[in-house]
Design brief:
Helix content is 21%, strand content 33%. The chain is α+β, with helices and mostly antiparallel strands and 728 residues long. It comes from Carya illinoinensis.
Amino acid sequence: MVLSPFLILWYVWLSSVSPPSTAATVSDRLTQNQVLEDGQTLVSSGQRFELGFFSRGNSSHRYLGIWYKNITLTVVWVANRNKYISGQSGSLSMGSNGFSLLLNNSEKLWSVNTTRVLESPILQLLDNGNLVLKEENNPDLEGYVWQSFDDITDTLLPGMKLGWNLKTGLYRNMTSWLSADDPSAGDYTFSLDSPETPQLVLIKGTQKKYRWGPWDGVRFSGSNELRSNPVFTPMFNSSREEVYYTFEVIDQESLLSRFVVTQDGWIQYLTWSKSSNEWVAMVTLQRDSCDRYETCGPYGNCYSDGPKCNCLKGFTPKSPEDWSRIIWSGGCVRRWELECENGDGFVKYGGMKLPDYSHLVESRNLSLEICEAECLRNCSCMAFTLIDIHGSGGDCVMWFGDLVDMKHFPSGGDDLYIRMAKKELESIADARRNKRVRVIVTVVICVATGMLLCGVISWCTIRIRKAKRRAACLNHPHRYLMEETQEEDLELALFNLKTVLAATDEFSFRNKIGQGGFGPVYKGVLPSKQEIAVKRLSRDSGQGLREFKNEVILISKLQHRNLVKLLGCCVHGDERMLIYEYLPNKSLDYFLFDQTRKKLLAWKKRFGIILGIARGLLYLHQDSRLRIIHRDLKASNILLDSEMNPKISDFGLARIFGADQTQEMTKRVMGTYGYMSPEYAMSGHFSVKSDVFSFGVLVLEVISGKKNWGFWHPDHDLNLIGHVKIQS
């Protein structure tokens, strides 16, 4: 069954695996004194999983493991992950008190032994992927002497438990493979870090990299991904005997799925697509750089939808100089020191990822008021909240010491009550009163008779002017355009609206080929059979008459093989349209950032595209009659013709420079973040260098196939430019 997942972030291709050669199936079990040789396999009763010996890539190292049957070999469990077998000399032997992985039928590499002798032991591979040792006539789960679900490698299957068995002391966690061809324990471990106050953590060595928690009765705080959805149901259990996380697949019979921690440190939920024969990543826990552990330091709040780090209300940066340089790790400090029982109180923050609780204390079944009083009574208590960790209806949770690893969500999240000094509370109250006063004064002024009268007069004047201009445009569109462009010789055709409507089938949806920054783009065919592209400027777009005139004047005077050709324009009432030559291969980003289509861009072709863009840019800056600064050079504004030759398009933001002019300044900064030079984005200064900066970003994207804006790496939060800089 092909799913339409609502959480798909990207596709994950698994490495090719060397399968066992022509393996002979024994059955789904081994009985006493039976031996499983290399080349033989056990297959679960439902033909879902297979147990046998395997190797990865070109390696001769052999391992005993479990994988999915009848799909691309995907290993979900490895017995001897840290002790490989050289060659095909391994065997699995079944005895009366356990089983052993033997080398040359003698040397023991790995084994499971029981403290008692079993009368009729069997080792059975179940259809859920669990390998169990049990008495043959005892079907009870509690009768399992041993099970592979208690010895997790890098994969969590449905029904596996991640966490603690407090009765036996068993601790289950996931550890990544060392590499794609080596299942040895790798750098990353994913686990519940405490049975008393459980939260999910990803650790590299001994250092926390990511954290989600604690459980609040619906999800782990800080992770909206691990909550019920149409594909799987997450479950958390906390009792005196067990504390664990697990999940169930809603369509268990037809859907193959698993959680995995990759060797690069990604936590992903994968499902098998039968149509494309590949694993698809439906959920990735690390959504953005705010998920990294302690990104903003103590009392810093991370925002994924705005300026990255902000101090909590009542706090200021510990080092303003570092924060001005976007170094946030030092965090924030209080403006007013706490005075304990002398007027301290709490400020509520909503939509929060709760802080790390290394020093957390909890008291069950307390009301919010009692929880607040308990925290206020302890001078070391910095914050509290009320959540349902253990399913008891509400746990009072308190924090002691600095609050770290917090994040703000635009929607969802938990409430957190943070302790503030009396002076800070008074300052907040004064600010609220002043805000109310300002609102009242503003309302009074707005409804004053004079302001209302001026507003009516202005509105009437504007309406009259617009009506006159619309009438002039309808009666004489060409003359209207010439007047608006100050009698410039346009040197291009003027199309009437009837011709454009006929060419595009009245702007039908099936003819829509793109969406630009200022409106949609449609494909059309003229009566002469010439194919055209019509850029229809939306009425509420950011491109007004100024940008439209600008684009018409500029492109009508430019002729170069690497610039898009403007055939004409159409003006009718509020409608403004530009008619371009049609380029069948769409824009560069259509190929560059798609995992499948990017393969069509060989290195020679990429070099040709870079060279073509450079030629077009050189023409604009140096060789044309006018020196043109484009100001919006990006992948989506590079169109490709039938031979994949690049053409620079979209001159709505371009500016003309004089012969001796080197730079200009504007208060109307427009363009695309990630491509704008720092001086243009921050102060409005632009020049030839601005386009050169955008070209440099474009070159990096063409070479790497990655977007500069939105680039993520597990070891840092730099964009593509910063990543390339530290790698050079």
